[in-house]
Fold these 2 entries.
Entry 1:
Amino acid sequence: VVVELSDQAAAIQIAVVDSLSAIQVALREVKGLGGRKELDAVNQITVIRNAGEGDVQAAADRAGVNLTPGVGASLLVAHMWQWLPHGRDYASLLGTPWTLVADDDAKADARIVEAAAMALQAVADVDTEPDPVEARAVRETASDHLLELASILEDTGLPQPAMGCAGSSLNFLLESASPRLIPALQQGIAYAVAAGDREKISSFRLREAQALELIGGASPAELRRRLDAFEGLIRHLPADGPARATTLRMIDWALRRDDALRGLIPLLLAQQGRVPDPGSAAAWLLVAGHRMEVASDDDAFPTEFMGFAMAFEDERLERTASTDIGAAETSWSTFAFTHPSLLDTIPLGDSILQERGLHQLFLVIAHEVTHVVTMLGHLAWGTMALQTALLELELRLWTFVIGSKPALGRRATALGVAPLTDPNILALAQAERALEVTLKLRALQAVWQPWLEGVALFGESSSKSTTEHEIMTAIHMVLANLIDVATGDVPELADRDALEKRYRRYLEDGERLHIESIRQHGRFRLADCIVQFPDRYLAGYVAVRAMVSAWRAKRPSIDGDAAFRLLVHATRHGTADAIPDLALPLDRFRATAHERMLDWLHQMGGASRHDLDRFCETEGASAIWKDGRYVEIDASVEDTGPRIEAYLERAQHSLLEEDADPDRVPTASDETKEILRAVASALAASERSWVVEERVLQRLAASVSILPIGGSDCSFWLSEATESVMVLLRTISVDAERRASKYVLLTLGLEADHFSQLRNEVLLRQESRMHVTRVADLVSIARPVEGRPQGTQYLIFHYGDWWHIIRRSFLGDRMPMEDSLRPAVIDRLRPEGLFAFESGLIADGRRGAVRTKAWIDAIGDRWDDLGYPIRSWVDRVNQLADDVLTSEGADDRANARRILNTVAGAEVAQRLGRDGLGGLAAADVALIDELARVLHASAHHPTDSVWLDEHATEVASLIGPVMKRTSWGWDVRAMNGG
Amino acid sequence: METTAILSVADFEASLAAARSIGRTGQSLPGLAAPIDGALSGRLDEAWRTLESVLRQGWRAGKDAARSAIDGAVTKIEEIISGAGELAKDLTEAVMERIRTLMAELIDRAIANVRTTLTVDGAPMRLGGLQVSQKVGLSGGLALSAVRVWELVTNGELEVVATYTLV
């Protein structure tokens, strides 16, 4: 219901009363509430306070009673009885925040009482506000505190009162289009799910759909959210009763006002050919397929229904697919990649072979998988540690808003960054640390980006022939396993040798496809990347090639395949010393990151013949690269857990104690520097325990080995008769022949219990779609794990707490599933998991920077009111925020030059670093393609080139001495003076 | 009166730049991003550079330029296109779009160079109409279009009939 302005004052009063009731319900869970001993204590405290003796804490001290959770709860409830007559004085109850006396058993109760006290205080602030309709911020604070209380209640295993508090919190968000409504509703839905309250969920879903409709928005993502919300309402429409009528009215209301939603109807109707009023709710409901359950005993859908369902999917995707994704991208945050052709598409069977532009798609997937695989070593661990430290700092910043750290749970993703308001010296220090950590993350990524791009680009052009599958790289394995072969397609099952041969052929088929992609398109993609995006690709590619040439100078038999495996291995297992101490102050961190990366290039380029031989013989098993030497180790040395703990400890020490350089604030006075030192020590002393524990981070690191490849929210239907679920998958985004999407209706027969669990989840949660993801298993790239072959792929079906995993790839329908897979998959994909925190809360530090900047600006001169000479420090923090918001890519060119200078010398750095291959174009644009041809051909092995024989001098004069004729043919000039 | 519309070096370079930008968004890539159509755009650029290279030679050589150069370039472009497999049709269209853009730019710029006023025996005259008398094609297949643009470039001028009226 949209509350009219004139009714809002009354609505606020209702909200106040409702929240009192919700808080009271929450307090009932506290042990000792209303007990004789507790009530005696309450009486003593009240008598002292009535005599005017200060706040509750002081009165309890004076009375000599322990302020236990039971006493605190009794005090609050007793006072709540007095709310109506005394409500406006309620704020005086708390005085200073309480510190409850609680033994281990009562700690949870203490958290509830403290949060309840804060929530009551906030509600009292609304009640005492002269014009609560206008005072939106006061109402929102009350809403926040109720949600925080709800979060603690859920944490304590009390979802029912949590749901009540979340529901009450909504009442304070009068503006139905408030963006705060959606996260609050989602929190409420989560508690209602935990409480198993279907009716409440229906009510929250209805309100969610309404809020999304009112918030509106024309972007594809916004349209998809509200379309899916309304689809959910339709699919879960109650059979009868007032709830049905209310839902129908809501749908009708939305269709009348929302052109985008209404626009989807005509196509559906054309399929049905029988709807009189396209705009009506009835039209939607005629879309019979949107019933959640299949009525027929037969699990086969009528043909016309499938036609409709696919047409609807097409239209939904057409209207709601992101239009701004023109590139494939690997994320430093999630260590996963996105590709426009795999958004909303799940490869199945051999569907990928029918994709339009298959060979181009294969190359891009290979490029992105290379990024992921190459990062999964020290670069990923360092990055994760910094990200985790950033998350921790953001949670700490919330203490300045709600008085305590929010629990690391569902609430944290809904929170967003802490909305700081008041000047506070400790908050300033934490905000500065968060910005420094953000900029260190950026610096580390910027330093290594050219190299990672160079390796990935080299991988696109290096393979020439099929290799033995024992040493196939993870990248090849992921590509080969994109194609599924089922038992029925393999007649050789009984013959072990024949089966082995068949498997080998399967892998070779995949690799052949990759090599054909390289043959067809590799040279053109190489040219496109280094010519069009020189700052991004050229320096890294030249560095990779110069290093490979240096290796070939010592071991000429290193072909493109071997070089690629070596590059990936060295980056993953050889960069430990190239990651700076993560606690270093920002400026030193930046300089050290550059310096060490360049040192690493030198060292790896100088790898000895002996070490190269050993790598090629052992293929990197149980070995790392240290100081450019190949060192065999106990494999556990590179285990993620201890490594990541060490990184995290240092990342968390940013700007603490000796790692806080007071000279970082250039114009700081001695007194200011003293304050900086004192704050750094004080924070260090207060940060002995962390919300984000190492074990959480280790789980995160373990789950990274699951690589999502394609995913989609899919329509699905349950068949009671057959205890199966039918899921409509888009398996081809654009079919090469028909230039249209292709769908498969996949039927999963389930065990009775498993089916029943899904049905219950569906009835409870009332979401419209099931999320399906295809993932590749990369766990064995570090050390082989029994039962989890490298690159093997799985389909993950996920609805609420229901998960179903089926193995795909070669004979997936016949192979067992290893037990460790499931928890890793769930950690990786669950929407409230750690990766969601990163994207929801941290978002690359950008949201925090925007917040901090706005906070500093809003306070303005009031910083001086704190009475400390910190203006120069405030300015520095503001500058850091600016740097975060403006530094994206700013240093790319300088970084590229440094790398070129290291691997190819000053002349090449100067020419290529400034103009890319523009020097060639100035003489004759065709020279670019001739050079790209030689670069591509020589990636696998040095090559002959009549053209370069004739033009070598000219080319060198235009772009510097990049190429060199070796005894085996033309190649990029080797680094280290080669 | 019949006259010629002359193309300057700047006109030629600007026209090439305009054509070269077709099919390019100029968009930078975020993070660890890769272009998804690099194979197509890489082929497009190579095909274009092949043509641009002979057009530049033709511009320099003028009417003495050997026709075999453009024929050779067309053959090479057709090879690049045929190697693109299922992307060949898209690639042909993209190359044609650049050629059309180049031709249109050259004509527009040449015409813009025709004097808009004249003084004859002290009498000022203003350009009243203009007709291109030379055959310039903006349609046809790739080979024909490439040859036509090459002819225009090697001529370095466009024959036009300009009509001036007394002011």
Note: Chain A touches chain B through 47 residues (CB under 8 Å).
Entry 2:
Amino acid sequence: VIQSVGRAARILKALGSESARLGVTELAERLGLAKATVYGLLRTLEAHQLVQQDLETGKYRLGPALLQLGNAFLDHHELRARSLLWADALAGRAGEAVHVGVLYGPDVLLVHHVFRPDNSVQILQVGASIPWHACALGKAVVAYLAPPARRELLAGPLPRLTGRTLTTRAALEAELERVIEGGVAVEDQEAIVGEAGVAAALFDIRGVVVGAIGVAGPVERLLPDGPAAEAVAAVKEAARGLSRELGAGRQAAPGAGA
Amino acid sequence: VDAACVRSWLAEVAGGLEEERDFLTQLDAAIGDADHGVNMHRGFTAVMRRVDALEAATPGQLLKTAGRTFVSTVGGAAGPLYGTAFLQAGEGLGDGAAFGPRRLLEALRASLEGVQRIGAAGEGDKTMVDALAPALAAYELELRTGGSLETAVRAAREAAADGARATVPMQARKGRASYLGPRSVGHQDPGATSTALMFAALERAVLADRSQRFAAGARPRGSRP
């Protein structure tokens, strides 16, 4: 491990977790480093536009180069690039927000988010991590993982996010069976009170699950009396189309084909 | 405390929400869907309509009606959470025509338990629990150390406001704001803020009730449930 690179990374993370700007002294205290060290790192990061100094206060914040890097990360993500059109179409058809996510450790990382098409103020959730067992996207993906990977995730930890989060291995195993049977995963206020989701898994040319696409919205609209048939059909169709675009054959996509 | 005081509490909450609607929405825009102010206001407008239509009702019935109305008119997280809070408080008050400070403590405790059962949030998660739990604790402490209803609701109001302010540096661990991870730091939680507003309304209602009783020459009501 290169110490200075590690320190620079910690500076960026510290600046990213604070809405206020931070001065050299505050950063040095927070990271337990000498002020001169922090100053040198900041100057170098600034030269690469990874941090920016406020001219009036002398304090630092994240720089514009990070936005370019973040966008580059998303652009190079093949699943995201290919999901753009399908996600827009799904949002339009279902009238709900659309999420596309991939499994990253025990969490689902949202790589794409289309706002609910109703002109309301919404907050961009790209980059969010949601524990897999609490969301439709995560359950859709894990249902089709190879048994060892699936077992490892089921072994936990399985934190409780709401009163409805499934937190036992037995309950989740049964839930994953239901996902395979029905071809979609349903989330009933398991991550956020009042919020529901319906998602289906995405497969690549090898037939391997690579992520999931789904709608998210108020529980009373998506699960009026069980999952709304229209939303389920729209999600399945989007997942099937997107999987095909990723190279999955009709047979290779067990969830989408059935 | 009798039904008239509960009615004036609900009216104070409705008024407070009307005034703070844009502020709550602004807070929510930073870490949520920018609908908290509008949702709460809509919910409480419906509550007032329903409660005003109830002619004779016990304090418990009033709060239960408020809870049910809230659940059915407000979506998102606020509907089920506040709805349950009021419903449980109503249950906790029982069927008496009036209640004392100890009964109110039980009702507040039932509220917190209901909210935690649904939301699974603890203190420090950056939710309404960060205002509700300290308010309950302060209220209880004040009663235990010989305080009156007036001083207890004041302590609760102060603790709730401090609790809401203390959510600013927290990173959200529950609700939509938790999706933002570290970006949720530096913003006051809208739910904790609206909870603090309800305790401020409670204090106003209780103080107004007392001063009316004194003005009318009546003895203040006994403090036993």
Note: Chain B has a mean pLDDT of 91.
